[in-house]
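Batch 3, record 17
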Amino acid sequence: MREFTLKSTITYKVYRQMILQFEDFLTTIGDIVIYAKEVISLILKREINWKEVLEQCARFGISSLPITLSIVGMSSVIVAMQVAGEMVKQGAGNYVGMLVALLIVREDGIIMSGFAIISMIGSSIASEIATMRVTEQVDAIKVLKVNPIRYLFVPRVLSGVLMMPPVLVVASVVGIVGGGIASHLASGLSYRAYFESVWHGLFMKDMNVALLKAVVFGFTIALISCVCGYTAKGGARGVGEATTKAVVWAFVGIVLWDLLFSIIFFF
Amino acid sequence: MGIEVKNLIKRFDEKTVIDNISFKVDSGEILAIVGFSGSGKSTVLKLICGLLEKDSGGIKTSGDIAMVFQYSALIDSLNVADNISFALRERKDLRKKYTDVQIRNIVREKLALVGLSGVENKFPSELSGGMQKRVSFARAIVTEPNIILYDEPTAGLDPVSSTLIENYIVSLKEETHAASIVVTHQMSTIMRTADKIIMLYNGKVVFTGTPQDLMRQDTPYTKQFVTASLEGPMKMLQG
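Prediction for the assembled complex:
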């Protein structure tokens, strides 16, 4: 007969798993804060490898653009198709452009761009750095007395900060134009009425807040992806876990920032 | 002076993996750290080069430390030239010291030293295991280190490539006069490269001597190691 021990009970294993998860949660928050501080300090000291920044910018901006534009464009088309007909019927056709534009600029554009960039770029940053970690490439960098945070984190975080605003601008333009076309096709709303409504509905504050959000989101996505990759343990499984963790944490991170921005600027 | 380790202790959680070991390696000398897998050999190297923090004891080193990793650890997004020149371009105290032309010349010179001229533009994935290892040698010596650490330098290589690598270890010692530590359990590497040997078992030093002392099999430990016997004082974890 098998010997009964506390450690063999399911309750013990469940509690132990919960404690480990909570411990990991706190450690990750701590890591994010510590590395954020180090990255900002290096940027302020101009410890920047600009060649690497340019390479990462191309990856962050150009590689992610097709998927970002598709997602933002399609989501604005869906919104416009669903609301334009009803609003025109109710005599509110002059507000369709404003509604779509506000939705894209304040919320949809940035969140959808964020999700697209996390899926494409964040996951690839996390898996790349995690692979470097488990194959001792990060150790080699350290032994060569090169600061791995300067070499790996700074260019990626900086490219996130620099590229997220232009990606957002392009995605928003595509989204607004796509919404106009969809409104016209769905309800016969004229392009002139639509774009006049856009023009009257958008304020500088909306655009400034959106750009600020883009900078913060870019920083958050790149930093979390780097941290999750850098703290990976084990072999192939560790790389997979780090990538999943980066995606989940970056999603949660940008939604939390979004909530905070809404409370600060629009509440 | 090269490396001096005194009463070194390292624990992971409650397990003591390095248990009060001491040794000294002078400039121009190669120490082989031998022992079965899991005896703590690689941990010693990681402690010396600062990848791990010691719990107690002393590690004294003089000058730059370089390390050749077991699986080469070349940065796979960089080509051979960029891998070799990585420290020269990225290290704070070196990055403004050399011009691009000087760096190109240094890379060419180090590649020639390991017999790999003309592969500057290849990526690590395009090289064989033995070639990757030689590139990692070139990367290690680019900063003219005073100490070179080799972690299983011949593991996984065919006998001819192993001999080539062992010859490079000896010739690098002669050219650089660096103090070197070779972690290995391959007899050919021990016999061809080492000036002296320490054997680890469960984190403790169980034998100190020369390759000739090892081959004499005077102690139960050396006898078991040299004859690769399952019988003896060193118990392996068995599945």
